[in-house]
Design goal:
The protein is of the alpha/beta class and 366 residues long. It folds into two domains: 173 residues, Rossmann fold (3-Layer(aba) Sandwich); 174 residues, 3-Layer(aba) Sandwich (Rossmann fold). The protein is 33% helix and 17% strand. It is built from twelve helices and 15 strands. It has an eight-stranded mixed β-sheet with strand order 3-2-1-4-5-6-14-15, with helices on both faces. A seven-stranded mixed β-sheet has the order 9-8-7-10-11-13-12, sandwiched between helices. β1, α1 and β2 form a beta-alpha-beta unit. α1 runs parallel beside α2, α5 crosses α6 and α9 crosses α10. The longest helix has 22 residues. The two termini are 30 Å apart. The relative contact order is 0.15. It comes from Pelagihabitans pacificus. It catalyses: L-alanine + NAD(+) + H2O = pyruvate + NH4(+) + NADH + H(+). Belongs to the AlaDH/PNT family. One of its GO terms (biological process) is L-alanine catabolic process. This is Alanine dehydrogenase.
């Protein structure tokens, strides 16, 4: 199979879909790998590294798409790439279709096979290809939140860890999944007081067992959310519904109950956000303010730490890339139940129910 790795062109996205180590494994298995020139530089991998591993370097993104049976990326194709995707081509990347109807329609029109990292699901119900980026984003959420709490950037002027004689800042985490636990861990490490909400009591019991005493748990409902947003300095949105649009747990009217300078970091932005006022931002222009509340909702947060993120991501994606290349997408998804759940759109047909539900589309009868 021919496998292509284009350079990411989303704003300030420096990750790359494959490292030289991945190229080496594919070439060793008899596959051809095309890498767009400079695709890996943002992550610290250079054309010479890829050539040494056996890749063929191509000059343009158009060449990579045109010459490849399978495209391996990090982020979803953006508008400039829509027309580059070929019929029957496998595109293996993060898609987050439920948050973008134009992207969904474009990939339907392309007649490609779209396999989404974020819906590949193992036997235990976890998402192995989403987990490493959720770990990065959860930890980064506290770093970014702490920065934007500073007064020069319109935050409350609160130091999360406090100092002797001054109480620490308060962090509210919505969701006790991977993002939420990593965020709570980082915030607790800084000395902040952390409240984490979830509707899954099993997850809350786990948090209680592994976190220090200044991380407290409560059941998530609107009453408790409204209670805590009034006196917490930093709010982390870490809610995930597999492949579906995130629920709006914080509505527009709730902003007026928060103190001026409260910071919201909505990590769920890729799936539409769990805050009603969330809209995707970029690393170039990451925040906006509504009702004196600072919103940080960068849609590719891990892209700011591309070396760490690329290594963490490709550690888990490479085995699936090899399986798809060795067996072809049909046999690979037939024989691997977790990879089959990654199928979102196949040759013009949406095959992942949550995408249909997100847009209110009627299922297509077979």
């Amino acid at each position: 199979m021919t496998v292509g790795v284009p350079k990411e062109i989303k704003n300030n996205e420096s990750r790359v879909g494959m490292t030289p180590a991945g190229v080496y494994e594919l070439v060793k298995n008899g596959h051809t790998v095309y890498i767009q020139s400079t695709a890996g530089e943002g992550s610290g991998f250079f054309d010479a590294d890829y050539k040494k591993a056996g890749a063929i370097i191509l000059d343009t993104i158009g060449q990579v798409y045109a010459m490849s049976d399978m495209i391996v990326k990090v982020k979803e194709p953006i508008q400039e790439e829509y027309q580059l995707v070929q019929p029957n081509q496998v595109v293996f990347t993060y898609f987050h279709f439920a948050s973008s109807e134009p992207l969904t329609k474009a990939m339907i029109d392309s007649s490609a096979i779209c396999i989404a990292y974020e819906t590949v699901e193992d036997d235990e119900g976890t998402l192995p290809l989403l987990t490493p980026m959720s770990e990065v984003a959860g930890r980064m959420a506290i770093q970014q939140g702490a920065k934007y709490l500073e007064k020069p950037v319109k935050g409350r002027g609160v130091l999360l860890g406090g100092v002797p004689g001054v109480a620490p800042g308060k962090v509210l985490v919505l969701g006790a999944g991977v993002v939420g636990i990593q965020a709570a861990k980082m915030a607790a490490g800084l000395g902040a007081h952390v409240t984490i909400l979830d509707i899954n009591m099993k997850r809350l019991r786990y948090v209680n067992d592994v976190m220090p005493p200044h991380v407290v748990t409560e059941f998530s409902n609107e009453f408790n959310i409204r209670k805590h947003i009034k006196d917490h300095d930093l709010i982390i949105g870490g809610v995930l519904l597999k492949g579906a649009k995130a629920p709006n747990l914080i509505t527009r009217d709730m902003l007026k109950e928060m103190r001026a300078g409260t910071v919201i970091v909505d990590v769920a932005v890729d799936q539409g956000g769990c805050v009603e006022t969330t809209r995707p931002t970029t690393h170039e222009d990451p925040v906006y303010i509504i009702d004196d509340v600072v919103h940080y909702s960068v849609a590719n947060m891990p892209g700011a730490v591309p070396y760490t993120s690329t290594m963490a991501l490709t550690n888990v994606t490479l085995p699936y890339v090899l399986k798809l290349a060795d067996l072809g997408w049909e046999k690979a998804t037939e024989t691997d139940a977790s990879l089959q759940k990654g199928l979102n759109i196949v040759k013009g047909k949406v095959v992942y129910e949550e995408i249909m539900e997100a847009f209110g589309w009627e299922p297509v009868m077979a």
